[in-house]
Structures are given as structure tokens and as C-alpha cells.
Amino acid sequence: MNNQNLTEKKHIDWMITLLPLALVIALCIVFFIAPDTSNAVLSQIRFFFGDTLGAYYLIIGLGIFLISMFTACSKYGDIVLGKPNEKPKYSFFTWGSMMFTAGLAADILFYSFSEWFMYAVDPRVAELGSVQEWAGVFPIFHWSFIPWAFYLVLAVAFGFMLHVRKRERQKYSEACRPLLGKYTDGWAGRIIDLLAVFALIAGTATTFSVATPLMAGIVNSLFGLNLDTTIVTIIILVITCCIYTYALLHGFRGISFLAKACIYMFFGLLVYVLLFGGETKYIIETGLSSLGRVIQNFFELSTYADPQRTSSFPQNWTIYYWAYWMVWCVAAPFFIGSISKGRTVRQTILGGYGFGVGSTIVSFIVLGNYSMGLQTSDTVNFLVKYTETGDAYTLITDIIGTMPCAPFVFALVLFTMIAFYCTSFDSIALTVSTYSYRKLKDGEMPHKLIQLLWCVLLILLPIALVFAESSMRSLQTVSIVAAFPIGAVMVMIVWSFLKDAKKYMSGDKEE
């Protein structure tokens, strides 16, 4: 047993494990000590990357989407992520459930309720036309094809690396080996891995800034309480940590069970709102119109940079979203690639678009158009409330309060969001646990103590940040800035995959 522990320690990459965490904690301390100064400095940095160099994100976004289509439709689509005759380990539903819940699913649920009214008050919508025509278009655009392309192209690259080439270094840098060669084992590889883990930790900490206030508000509304939001949020975080830690320590069986339960609740919510909310006709017809407008204007929406800054819409929204998804591309694609063993590249990409994009679009159409239908029929004026207060969280609870059997819907939304966070953190904790090892064979799981360590560490930072809203905003800026180098690494990974896949298809089965 002693020897086994010594071997385990030798295999752990302490630099990759501890340095990014120490850096993020150091930043948090700086934010606490000098929040105003750090906010000002980070805002300037964010302006430089997000505004001055904003076209960089737009080019990468459209480029990777086009590459995903090319890859799925080309000869590379026939490559099996595993042995040539291997069958998928998971059914399509189980695979799709784990894939969809591995990323920003809780954020998707939050923005499905709220994003249309955020756009409705934006000058860009007034430039284009009416709220009815455009407020439902941008949510579908920002959460569908391009962001999911980030996930799916990288997922097949990682799946090819793990299941076909059987590489034992399960790290971001290893996916760049066909391009970097021997430099992968040097400082170039170390820098890539440090950037990846830093972005992952920062992104994980900040994602709770989106939905936890809503969850706390729902708890207060559901039970008629007036508790301090901070206390409720911390309780929710601790419960979430316990659930995802329990599921992760039971391996993929626990993760798949939690993911399927989450999907059942999610689609149950959508069906209930669609059939019993009283806006069925409006939801379907407006959703169909919005989807058609996204398809018709896809390339224009993907390349619009507002050079004269008449509204700064792409800088505030499109570029921000692309950057945010890039930060999350450190974890989710690795997880999707690992569970895609036995599927072809084509099945992974097209199946991912079908389940991931399909579920996302349905969520935005049903939940967003429910309240937009009430707005356009003058039943409730949500826009006046939002313009006056700017409080999306209270407005969402007001929206849910208009639904039949509102307490039931409150409970369903709360449990679904907790489940979404649990499944997202499962995939993150598993991915970052594999990062802690110098080598890990295909199918080999990290030690349970390493998994437990990361489960606890990933939740401590969000709990600490709950006490300082300015620090949360600052760290979110750090995660967006972190997306700039991550975007370049993503391009290198895609390039490496296409190079290696071409070599594999030409008959070089061994690297």
C-alpha cells in the first residue's frame, strides 16, 4: 500500500495541480484588498481584448463552425473514436444527456428565461426592427451552432487523441503534439497546460455568479422566506458539492444517472410550460420565425463587429459569449471526447448538434417566448420592470410566478438548476483530476482522493467569492481575458487533429 501511494505521488503533476490554483487565490486576495483598483485595471485589459481585438473571437468562432461541418462531411467523419469496429459504450440518450449537462446547462436555463428582455432594451434590436422580430433571435444564435462547434470539434480531437492514438498524457498540450512535436514536453506544453487549468478554475468560479442569485431568490419565494441571499447561496453551493462529489466518486455510472435525471426534469419543465402555460401557439410560431431568421442571417450575425460602435452590441454580447464558451472548452470537450468512445467523428459532431443544439434551442424558444408572449399581449409589462430595476433575478421569479401551479414550477426549476450544476461540476472535476497526472491510460480513472480534492477545491473559490460581488465581476473579467490565449490553443488543437487524422487515414495507424 505504501509503494502504491508513492507511485501515485510520482505520477501526480504538482506544478499543474497547484500553481493555477495558487494564482487564482492570489488574484482573489488582491480583489479583496484593492477591489476598485483591480476592477479598473482589469476593465482596461478586458476592453483591449474584447473591444480592440474583438474580431479575433468572431473569426475563430465562425472558422471553427465551418471546420466542424467540413470534418463531419469529409472522409475524417468515418474515423471511429476507438478500434475500427468498436461500438459506442453509451446509448444515444445517455451519451447526449451527459454531453448536454457537462457544460453551461445551468446558464442555459437561466438565460432561457431572461435573455430576450435583455436584448429587448438594447439599441441594436431597435436598429434592426421590433422586439417581436429580433429579441428571440439572438438567444438562439448566441447559444447554438458556434458555441457548440467549440465543444464538438475539440471533443473529436480529444477523443481521437485518447481512443485512437492511445496517448497517456490527458492534457490540453498533448492534443497539440502533432503540431508542436518535441516542444510539447518542454515549456511550450507546460504553458499551454497552465493556461488551460487557470482558465478552467477561473471559469468555474465565475459561472456561479450567473444563476446562484436566482436559485437563492427561488428558495425565498418558494418558502415565503426573507433570508439573506448570501447564506442561502452558500447552503446551495454546499448541497451541490455533496451531490456532485457523491456522483463522481461512483464513476461514470453515477455521472450518467445524474445526467439522465437532470434531462428528465429539464424536458419535464419545458413540456409543462409549453402545454400548460397558456402561450403554446405563440411559443411555437415565434420560435419557428426566430429560428428561420437565425438561419437566414447566420453569416451576417457571425461577422457583425459594429465598427462605428453605434450600439457596441457584438462587444457586449457576441464576443463576450464566444470568449466565455472558449474558457469552458478546457473541460467540457475533454469529457465529451472521453464518453464518445466507439462513435465516429461524424456521429459525435452531428449527434452533438442534434442533442446539444436541439435541446438548447428548444429551451430558449419555450421559456423565453412564454414571457415574451405575455409581454406582446400586454398581459404583463416585464420590460418596464426591467428598465426600472435592471434586476433580472427578481423578474425571472415574477415570470415563474405567472405560471399555473407556480410553487411546483419554482421547485422544478430549483432542482433542475442544482442538478445542472452538479453534472457540470462532475465533468470539470473529472477533467481537472486527469490533469493532475503526468500519464493516465485510456479508461483509467484518477485516484478517488485526487477527485475528492478537486471536488472540494472547485467549490471553495465560489463560496469565498460570494462575499464580494466586485471580486466576482473582476474574476469573470479574468476568465474572459484568459480566453484570448485559449482561442489560439484551440486553433492549434484543431490544426493538430486534422494533420494527425490525415496521417491516420493514409494508413499510418501508429504514431
TrEMBL record:
<feature type="transmembrane region" description="Helical">
    <location>
        <begin position="191"/>
        <end position="211"/>
    </location>
</feature>
<comment type="similarity">
    <text>Belongs to the BCCT transporter (TC 2.A.15) family.</text>
</comment>
<feature type="transmembrane region" description="Helical">
    <location>
        <begin position="449"/>
        <end position="468"/>
    </location>
</feature>
<feature type="transmembrane region" description="Helical">
    <location>
        <begin position="54"/>
        <end position="72"/>
    </location>
</feature>
<feature type="transmembrane region" description="Helical">
    <location>
        <begin position="349"/>
        <end position="370"/>
    </location>
</feature>
<keyword id="KW-1003">Cell membrane</keyword>
<feature type="transmembrane region" description="Helical">
    <location>
        <begin position="12"/>
        <end position="34"/>
    </location>
</feature>
<feature type="transmembrane region" description="Helical">
    <location>
        <begin position="319"/>
        <end position="337"/>
    </location>
</feature>
<keyword id="KW-0812">Transmembrane</keyword>
<keyword id="KW-0813">Transport</keyword>
<dbReference type="InterPro" id="IPR000060">
    <property type="entry name" value="BCCT_transptr"/>
</dbReference>
<feature type="transmembrane region" description="Helical">
    <location>
        <begin position="408"/>
        <end position="437"/>
    </location>
</feature>
<dbReference type="Pfam" id="PF02028">
    <property type="entry name" value="BCCT"/>
</dbReference>
<keyword id="KW-1133">Transmembrane helix</keyword>
<feature type="transmembrane region" description="Helical">
    <location>
        <begin position="92"/>
        <end position="113"/>
    </location>
</feature>
<feature type="transmembrane region" description="Helical">
    <location>
        <begin position="231"/>
        <end position="249"/>
    </location>
</feature>
<feature type="transmembrane region" description="Helical">
    <location>
        <begin position="261"/>
        <end position="278"/>
    </location>
</feature>
<feature type="transmembrane region" description="Helical">
    <location>
        <begin position="140"/>
        <end position="162"/>
    </location>
</feature>
<keyword id="KW-0472">Membrane</keyword>
<dbReference type="GO" id="GO:0022857">
    <property type="term" value="F:transmembrane transporter activity"/>
</dbReference>
<protein>
    <submittedName>
        <fullName>BCCT family transporter</fullName>
    </submittedName>
</protein>
<dbReference type="GO" id="GO:0005886">
    <property type="term" value="C:plasma membrane"/>
</dbReference>
<feature type="transmembrane region" description="Helical">
    <location>
        <begin position="480"/>
        <end position="498"/>
    </location>
</feature>
